[in-house]
Input
Amino acid sequence: MLRRTWWLLAAATILAAQEKPRPLTPEERIELIRGLTAEYATAKVALPRSKKALVVDSNGSYDKNEWQALAREHGPAARAGDLVQITKVSLHDDRIVFEINGGFRGGRKWYERIQITGGMGTRTVPLGGSQHTAAPGGTSIALVFNRRLPPVKVAEVKKLLAPLLDFEQRSATEQYLETLPPPIRQAIQEKRAVEGMDRDQVLLALGRPVRKVRETVEGRELEDWIYGQAPGRIVFVTFEGNKVIRVKETYAGLASQGPSLAVPR
Output
């Protein structure tokens, strides 16, 4: 009897260990955040504006009645067919939270102002174009796993979000990228900021910064966009006017070093 009980306990322990995924490594967390932040997608269903993140189960299900009620209360964040952008990614114990178009207080974004030269002459058309329209607002989505967040990859997360967002239909963004110089286009595709970019291109490459700092240096008005938080990698993108004049990368809060967000000059 004791031997049988011991085997049952051992089996239960093994099953529990198998059901509970291992925690993400720091490298996996960075890969998810960097791989999903600033990504564009086409909304496949209407997304309501919501002060709290819209809950989506990892099996793709969500409360349609609740979403309709939120849309009546706050209005739409995106309609089916609208182009949206993930502007922030947060990883929690059992979920990934995506800020869409700047979140609840967000609105129409840079891609409504960009124009592309079309055909002959100097006629221009909005980036939103005929195939995609710009989403009217912002919201947040929480992809919930109902257990500890597993070590998923970026491609897997996009598949889990497939009932809501289509990451393949991004022709409007691709058209804009095709108008850019190759070094700028490559940097955006690799999610890097480089000298010579303008603000809209940095937003396309890196998304919204954690914070902005303005200062006057030797009579020059500079603005730093800061990406990342301590401990870890921090990127400083310095603008003079609308152009990037410097990009610096550092690591803060590692080992015995305390966190620091002093802008390197």
User: Anything to note?
Assistant: DSSP finds seven helices and 15 strands in the chain.
